[in-house]
């Protein structure tokens, strides 16, 4: 989430911070065991990213449950 790219052109270095996308598609499974994406092979996961009080939450666009980043990492 805090990625920085270094771009080197003509001997000069530019540091570019990359923002987290507002929607994350099909990268990891939904932690909710009864989410349709875990039971239907054709359903793809999509998460909305929301920041509140310094915390990043991911919202499954299919089952509408809210997850903290740590919950997503436990599924992986």
Task: Please sum up the structure shown.
The chain is mainly beta. It has helices spanning 36-39, 69-75; strands at residues 4-9, 12-17, 23-25, 46-52, 55-60, 66-68. The longest helix has 7 residues, at 69-75.
Provide key terms for this protein.
41% strand; mainly beta; two-stranded antiparallel sheet
How much helicity do the residues have?
Answer: 10-25%
Secondary-structure element order, N to C: EEEHEEEH
N-to-C span: 17 Å
Low-confidence stretches: none
Would you count the extended β strands for me? 6
Largest sheet data: 4 strands, antiparallel
Number of helices: 2
What overall form do the CA principal axes indicate?
Answer: elongated
Structural class: mainly beta
**Strand order within the widest beta sheet:** 3-4-5-6
| Mean of all residue-level pLDDT scores | 90
Strand content: 35-45%
Instruction: Please tell me how large the radius of gyration is.
Output: 16 Å
Describe the overall structure.
Helices cover 14% and strands 41% of the residues. It has helices at 36-39, 69-75; strands at 4-9, 12-17, 23-25, 46-52, 55-60, 66-68. It has a four-stranded antiparallel beta sheet. A two-stranded antiparallel ribbon has the order 1-2. Strand 5 and strand 6 form a beta hairpin. The longest helix has 7 residues, at 69-75. The radius of gyration is 16 Å and the shape is elongated. The mean pLDDT is 90.
Helix and strand arrangement:
Blueprint: E1 4-9, E2 12-17, E3 23-25, H1 36-39, E4 46-52, E5 55-60, E6 66-68, H2 69-75
């Amino acid at each position: 989430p805090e990625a920085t790219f270094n771009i080197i052109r003509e001997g000069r270095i530019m540091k570019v911070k990359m923002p987290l996308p507002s929607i994350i598609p099909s990268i990891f499974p939904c932690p909710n065991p009864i989410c349709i994406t875990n039971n239907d092979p054709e359903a793809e996961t999509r998460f909305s990213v929301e920041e509140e009080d310094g915390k990043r939450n991911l919202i499954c666009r299919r089952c509408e449950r809210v997850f903290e980043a740590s919950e997503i990492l436990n599924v992986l």
